[in-house]
Amino acid sequence: MKKTRQYQLTHWLKTQSALAQRWLRLSMLLGLFSGILIVAQAWLLASLLHALIVEHQPRGELVSSFIWLAATFALRALLSWLRERVGFICGQAIRQRMRAQVLDKLQRLGPAWIQGKPAGSWASIIVEQIEDMQDYYARYLPQMYLAVFIPLLILLTLFPINWAAGFILLATAPLIPLFMALVGMGAADANRRNFVALARLSGNFLDRLRGLDTLRLFNRGQAETEQIARSSEDFRQRTMEVLRMAFLSSAVLEFFASISIAVVAVYFGFSYLGELNFGSYGTGVTLFAGFLVLILAPEFFQPLRDLGAFYHAKAQAVGAAEALETFLAAEEGEQVGNGAQILDPALPLTLQAQDLEILSPDGVLLAGPLTFTLPANQRIALVGLSGAGKSSLLNLLLGFLPYRGSLQVNGTELRELSAANWRQQLGWVGQNPHLPAQTLRENILLGAPEASEEQLQQAIEQAYVSEFLPHLPNGLATDLGDGAARLSVGQAQRVAVARALIGPCRLLLLDEPAASLDAHSERRVMQALNQASHQQTTLLVTHQLEDIEHYDQIWVMDSGKIVQQGDYATLSAQPGLFANLIAHRSGEL
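Given the sequence above, the corresponding structure tokens read:
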């Protein structure tokens, strides 16, 4: 990773700290109070030793000093605990805000953009990479400021006592961050490569897990197992590289800190022997000054030690931030939701497209130009070969893809509509039913939680969910399990149909709703959808030509364009792609 890129990511990480600025300032303030207590504690301890050894004061006269010394120990322990607690809350608040930003961004970009990466990669960003920023905000960032303030406070205390000792500490202190920075650049780069490898490994593993049946069918299980083993070994080596960098950073810090403390000790040793007579402003080196400096010398480097101990957290955060910052800065394109226009609920929906070009999230042309009118309360079937652009048109209407040209809803450009208001007008059933809620009832009411019990029962009857409902152990309260494992694909699809029917919609979008279903489930699902299609404008994408014989219009797509329009009887009687599809279908049967 280039230095300029590291600086950019470090700056971006610091800007994110504004999400919990109050907690960050409180952590730094507690650390500064702890630094003041360090100086007070060292002063009290040096005074006690000087009084007992040099001045031979009775212990009874020093009881108050002992009490104050014990109080400083207790108060430092309390402040350390409070700092840990506040730091955790600070990191937790920032991680929660970051996850909210990522999830909001994923929602705005939509499924079409998300499908460009394996699900494991998104899980790596949302879970591991954001989680690995905890120590950066909880410990490293506050410590970075304390590593300046506390040594400065100690120097201000020592220079009036002995300028030579203060100069030794001042001269050796810059060497530590200098060499730590040199080592840290390599550590950040190693962490970046580690996170890239982790995201790749997570994505590959999840994809292979999902395709396990296919891999076994084609006898690829052993080969894929070996590939995962090689990827895991590569990730292990990268992790060890990161650990080597972290240990090297700590070793550099300890080396220079030990040299500096040793030089201070040698200086005072020779001063007490009378060999060195400078540094104490001509008054002679006292035992108090020696004890004070030698007690504070390790504390002078302790903030830098702590910074070094947490430095791997910065390298880890910089490595994690690259993918996160790149994702959050990704272009969203012109998608539904940027506007604020609200549709009149009293008017039926009419869609008009003029020279419409559907684009991918990266700006690649997927379909078009398209010119059509979708009248209100019409049933339109969209057919064509795979890859003709049918699903792209549905994704555009759902607000998941950008476009060029014009697509108006009741005279208002689609991109100018409020996303929330537009999607309230839509009902949708796709090829693969997704039931994310826990119970059957919650999945049906997902889009209309305020629906009445009568509406719920009506949707259950219309979608033929009532056919298998008595076989579930707890009826509507049945826990469906992860991925709706308790239901078959056909049953899950009927639940998805019920979910689409329970809320009043003005445009029903159906994308191969009977795909991958058995004959019984297909018949039930299509019966439910055919009944529902008469209640609003309906656009059905299908390869099952026998299901669309009574639709008002059929649009035939080829190579991203609408090449034929008309009813079933007209299109089947004239030469063209639709007649070829019917002939091909008849030949298969």
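The mean pLDDT is 79. Try to locate this feature in the token string yourself.
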